[in-house]
Amino acid sequence: PLVLGIETSCDETGVALVRGDELLVDAVASSMEEHARYGGIIPEVASRAHLEAMIPTIQKALGEADVDLSEVDAIAVTAGPGLVGPLTIGASAAKALSIGLNKPLYGVNHVIGHACVDQLVDGPLPERAMALVVSGGHSSLLLVQDIATDVVELGSTLDDAAGEAFDKVGRLLGLPYPGGPHIDRLAREGDPTAIRFPRGLTAAKDQAKHAYDFSFSGLKTAVARWVEARTDAGEEIPVNDVAASFAEAVADVLTAKTIAACHRNGVDTLVIGGGFSANSQLREMAAKRCAEAGIDLRIPPIRYCTDNGAMIAALGSAVVRAGVAPSALDIPVDSSMPLTTVTV
Ligand code: ATP
Ligand code: MG
Ligand code: FE
């Protein structure tokens, strides 16, 4: 079946067409440049941008793939989690298409889409796989027993997402927004062992309840204190070493917990998705530790890791093929959709 996927959970308007596990086209429009002026995403600005970009992006996707709307067999759309205004705009477009074309509608989970998109690149996931989804809004560890029907949330961040922590540390180091890529670049010139920053939720006392949860706000505060103390003492800040030591702490926690979860669940395939998977320190450490642990590591190219329509069309395609019932036409969007809910 040919599935048209629509993604509008945050600041990217994404529209893609997927047939089976084959991606025909992935069109995306972003309002990030507008948000950069404010140093963060303004939901109202994002909503208006989605409204303006939606129809042109649908037309662009259809045109590039040389597909007529009448050929589409099903519509998939992000139902959550995400910003409620932006989600509503994507859902409204998807409902209109579903009604107009008389084709089934599937409201799907954005975070699970970040894991599913890998199937378009690396082929079908094995029966059980681990997925680490890390972005500006999410840091979650999912046990994927069946991408269309059975996903277990092993853990998530209790406070900041990994990308968010990078952006906050970027701000305190005076870097432009978003700070993540800048810290990555500076960290490559620094010594990751220069400063021992804390690893959140790794202490023995946290193992019972939070073995697979993450916490990055304590780390961010530790970096702020360290920088403040040096500044107060009139010392120069070794920015590269701070960036490298901070990035090392984040990568260490993410990879250690994820690999422990793979071992304890007898899983030997790991997918990393979400925009933060661009981070070189995470990529390097994950590659090294997965190789040592005999885990097959799959990270799709970065354009599929940031928010896009392909991830939603991919999950829609998997769900259709699994024979899951379509969503009701009045699908509710859910800003905090549970990560165990694949479709609504
Ligand atoms: P979501 O809705 O999935 O949370 P998002 O727009 O918040 O999406 P993405 O666009 O997927 O997130 O990723 C952007 C985040 O990743 C930002 O926080 C950004 O700073 C961070 N990031 C991107 N590249 C890097 C990098 N190389 N190193 C560190 N952080 C990065
Ligand atoms: Mg984004
Ligand atoms: Fe996302």
Keyword list:
single chain, 344 residues, alpha/beta, five-stranded mixed sheet, 13 helices, 10 strands, 19% strand, globular, binds adenosine-5'-triphosphate, binds magnesium ion, binds fe (iii) ion
**Helix residue percentage:** 40-55%
**Span between N and C termini?**
20 Å
Number of strands: 10
* Overall radius of gyration: 20 Å
Total helices: the number is: 13
Bound molecules: adenosine-5'-triphosphate, magnesium ion, fe (iii) ion
Order of helices and strands: EEEHHEHEHHEEEHHHHHEHEHH
Our estimate of the beta-strand percent is: 15-25%
Poorly predicted regions are none
| Sheet with most strands | 5 strands, mixed
**Quick check: average pLDDT?**
97
SS-based structural class?
Answer: alpha/beta
In one word, what is the shape?
A: globular
Query: Order of strands across the widest beta sheet?
Result: 3-2-1-4-5
Pfam families: TsaD
Keywords: Acyltransferase, Cytoplasm, Iron, Metal-binding, Transferase, tRNA processing
GO molecular function: iron ion binding; tRNA N(6)-L-threonylcarbamoyladenine synthase activity
Cofactor: Fe(2+)
